């Protein structure tokens, strides 16, 4: 993925969220379950978004990003510290290009939740030992698709898909 296709201001037009659990193989959890979830894509979820607005994501030429809330949003949201919130709390950071994706890495993450090297093949936004978040961007049909993959307690799974249109 090239950064140039992501640069600009993007306005949120819709979102959808799902949750699940890591599958069991016999009495043990699937050893690939966490990695598979963190690498998950928006896929068919893009077609299931519900209209929502009130958030602008701006990406600069150097990969820095900023978010601004412009209204009251009712979407599933994990804040900068990995907490599931009832309201959107925008954060800023930098994009990390890796393979086919551009991953969002928030600034000002507490030291104890700074992601370290991992075996998942993604750039993590957050990892405090209980909650792991990988958040990445891709362009689909001239829209920016943001997929937030969350694993809690190595068992519980959340995926939030947000679709943006260039402003």
State the gist of this model.
The chain is mostly beta strands and 167 residues long. The chain has one helix spanning 33-38, and strands at residues 8-21, 24-25, 28-29, 50-51, 55-59, 64-69, 77-78, 84-85, 93-98, 101-106, 126-127, 131-140, 143-152, 156-166.
Structure, described:
It is a single chain. The chain is mainly beta and 167 residues long. The chain has one domain (3-166): Lipocalin (Beta Barrel), CATH 2.40.128. It is built from one helix and 14 strands; from the N terminus they run βββαβββββββββββ. The strands form three sheets. The chain has an eight-stranded antiparallel beta barrel with strand order 1-5-6-9-10-12-13-14. A hairpin with a 3-residue loop joins strand 11 (126-127) and strand 12. The longest helix is centred in the N-terminal third of the chain and has 6 residues, at 33-38. 33% of the residues are buried. The model has no long low-confidence stretch (mean pLDDT 92).
Descriptive labels:
Lipocalin, 167 residues, globular, two-stranded antiparallel ribbon
Topology summary:
Elements: E1 8-21, E2 24-25, E3 28-29, H1 33-38, E4 50-51, E5 55-59, E6 64-69, E7 77-78, E8 84-85, E9 93-98, E10 101-106, E11 126-127, E12 131-140, E13 143-152, E14 156-166
Antiparallel strand pairs: 1-4, 1-5, 1-14, 2-3, 5-6, 6-9, 7-8, 9-10, 10-12, 11-12, 12-13, 13-14
- Biggest β-sheet strands, sense, barrel: 8 strands, antiparallel, barrel
Helix vs. strand class: mainly beta
CATH class equals Mainly Beta
CATH architectural name = Beta Barrel
pLDDT averaged over residues: 92
Query: What is the 3D form?
Result: globular
Question: What is the ordering of alpha helices and beta strands?
Answer: EEEHEEEEEEEEEEE
- Unreliable parts: none
Q: Termini distance?
A: 21 Å
Rounded radius of gyration (Å): 15 Å
Strand order of the largest sheet: 1-5-6-9-10-12-13-14
Instruction: Count every beta strand, where a strand is a DSSP E run of 2 or more residues.
Output: 14
What is the name of the CATH topology? Lipocalin
Helix run count = 1
Strand content: over 45%
Protein name: DUF1579 domain-containing protein
